[in-house]
């Protein structure tokens, strides 16, 4: 299990990288777009043409999660993905990630 310091350090590194590479969150082309799993790690970086929504998803990234757990499974997360909204990884841990939802301005 990662310490809070390790998670924060990783998030800071991903933020710097996203800004340097001018990454943009993945914009879903349709509801449940499976290509959303190609989303980049954005960390705190927020490109100018995007705005964060109130939706942040806690998602299992191990592939071993089940429907009754706190973290959403991949299929549960896909049911929340909406066309025209964008998604990027905000923070990651050893077995779960937080995914931030964005809207395009």
Task: Show the helix and strand layout.
Elements: H1 4-21, E1 26-27, E2 50-60, H2 74-78, E3 85-92, E4 96-104
Notes on the protein architecture:
By secondary structure, the chain is α+β, with helices and mostly antiparallel strands. The chain has one domain (4-104). The chain is 22% helix and 29% strand. It contains 2 helices and 4 strands. The chain has helices spanning 4-21, 74-78; strands at 26-27, 50-60, 85-92, 96-104. The protein has a 4-stranded antiparallel β-sheet with strand order 1-3-4-2. The N and C termini lie far apart (37 Å). The model has no long low-confidence stretch (mean pLDDT 93).
Offer a concise description of the structure.
By secondary structure, the protein is an alpha+beta fold. It has helices at residues 4-21, 74-78, and strands at 26-27, 50-60, 85-92, 96-104.
List the keywords.
105 residues; alpha+beta; four-stranded antiparallel sheet; 2 helices
Spatial order of strands in the largest sheet: 1-3-4-2
Tell me about the largest β-sheet: 4 strands, antiparallel
Number of domains: 1
**Low-confidence regions:** none
Q: Give the SSE string.
A: HEEHEE
The first-to-last residue Cα distance is 37 Å
Q: What proportion strand?
A: 25-35%
Instruction: Report the strand count.
Output: 4
> What's the overall average pLDDT, rounded?
93
Q: What structural category arises from helix and sheet content?
A: alpha+beta
Radius of gyration: 13 Å
The coarse silhouette is: flat
Number of helices: 2
- Percent of residues in helices: 10-25%
